[in-house]
Amino acid sequence: MLSAQKAGEELLLVSSSSDIHGSVLSDAFVQKNCSLHVRGNLRGNLTIERGAHVVIEGSIDGKVINRGGRLVVNNRGIAEFIKEEGPPEAEAGGILKINLTAVAFNWETLAKRVAGECAAVVKGDAFGCGIDPISSTLTEAGCRTFFVSNLAEAKRVRAIAPNATIYVLDGLYAGTGPVFASINARPVINSLIEMAEWDVFVASSHWQGGFAVNVDTGLSRQGMSPQEAAAIAGRVSSPVHGITLLMSHLDHPGRPDHPLIDRQISTFQDLRRLYSGVPSSLVGSSGIFLGPKAHFDVVRPGAALYGANPTPAVRNPMIPVIDLRARIVQVRKLAQGEAIADMNGWSARRPTRLAIVAMGYADGYPFPAAEQAPQAIVGGERCRVVGRPAMDLLAVDVTDHTDPSAVRHGEMVTIIGGALGIDDLAAAARSSAGEVLSGLGRRFHRVYHAN
């Protein structure tokens, strides 16, 4: 048996019977009469010599050269969720492609970094990527615990994952206890008022489902105070206390040197001792990279699953999930000093050629920060987005494009994808990748694929 660390080598050379639990990131060469079983995805090219036998449980991204061997690809799980949504491609102003295999790979990558359980945060319609196909994919990948925003999302995940544990982050509203019971979901209790409401429901219904206690260990985020959480810790001495998770949220996980991190971890450790026997969870995507001191029993990755960089100071360990392209609806020439309406005072400082693209703030395109212009890829070249987006339109400066003929009506412009990552657009807007992802509208032609 080989570990998935083999995937980091330049070439995986298989000269015997090899079983890899995880994905392979490099090219693979399987010699004559040898076998390879990859319980994950193959991200590179695959060469199979005569008499070799290869089984891939996920997908293959690269080319396959089969010289007389046998290849079996069991990607049925993810393939079941491949679909298209929204207006037809020919009628849509943009095309949003979401790579489900990449989502599964990112979850798997994060799960390998922790000794405990790796859950998944699919709140906000899975950060705008679609809660149904994303939850299906993650269930197939092995995820067993999901965190959602509200009961409506909990119902959708339950329909897909009948045996999963589902926590509802927005907590308990008055009168919603029966709904939690009907779908076997667990509220995240954020206050003593919610806890009292839950206790009344449990006493009257004899429901034995559990709940999470959320504690604010940092900067006045949602949750009980540490003092309130300590005061009710005595509940765990009861055999039917119902607390299935103690959780909090790390405020500055992307800044490992921030002084509040160690303080929050210490506070949470103290509370964890009071809640003996109850699983605990503190960190999401970025916090996973702080190491075991922050992991506890359950980690809750969110934006990183969808390709956002959880380690802003270094290279992104995640692989891209989305590719977003929008259509050029007009090419315009402006004289020096000319302006375009709805662009917040922007005017051409020289004779300028603009590609007007069918995407705007109604599609979730963020307003850029004044000092940093976002970019788009037009005809294979990076070009500046100028001005502010209108509701339906975006202006891209193509004046210096080396091939003017490549900028034509109807051609597609890459907004996110290739050399332009989701974090690049977020940085240009002084925003976060999660915010940009969650804002992506439903007017695109959406394609969910597995390669």
Could you give a short description of this structure?
This protein has 451 residues and is of the alpha/beta class. It has three domains: 73 residues, no CATH class; 194 residues, Alanine racemase (TIM Barrel, Alpha-Beta Barrel); 128 residues, Lyase, Ornithine Decarboxylase, Chain A, domain 1 (Beta Barrel), CATH 2.40.37.10. The strands form five sheets. Strands 10, 11, 21, 22, 23, 24, 25, 26 and 27 form a nine-stranded mixed β-sheet that branches. Strands 13-14-15-16-17-18-19 form a seven-stranded parallel β-sheet.
What can you tell me about this protein's structure?
This protein has 451 residues and is an alpha/beta fold. The protein has 3 domains: 2-74, no CATH class; 113-306, Alanine racemase (TIM Barrel, Alpha-Beta Barrel), CATH 3.20.20.10; 322-449, Lyase, Ornithine Decarboxylase, Chain A, domain 1 (Beta Barrel). It contains 11 helices and 27 strands. It has helices at 76-79, 100-111, 123-127, 131-141, 151-160, 177-183, 192-205, 226-231, 259-274, 422-428, 433-438, and strands at residues 2-3, 11-14, 17-21, 27-30, 35-38, 46-48, 53-56, 64-66, 70-73, 83-85, 94-99, 117-118, 120-121, 145-148, 165-168, 186-189, 211-214, 243-247, 280-281, 298-299, 322-334, 352-357, 375-378, 381-386, 394-397, 412-416, 445-449. Strands 10, 11, 21, 22, 23, 24, 25, 26 and 27 form a 9-stranded mixed sheet that branches. Strand 16 (186-189), helix 7 (192-205) and strand 17 form a beta-alpha-beta unit. Helix 2 crosses helix 4. The longest helix has 16 residues, at 259-274. It is globular and about 75 Å long. The relative contact order is 0.12. The model is unreliable at 1-8 (pLDDT under 50).
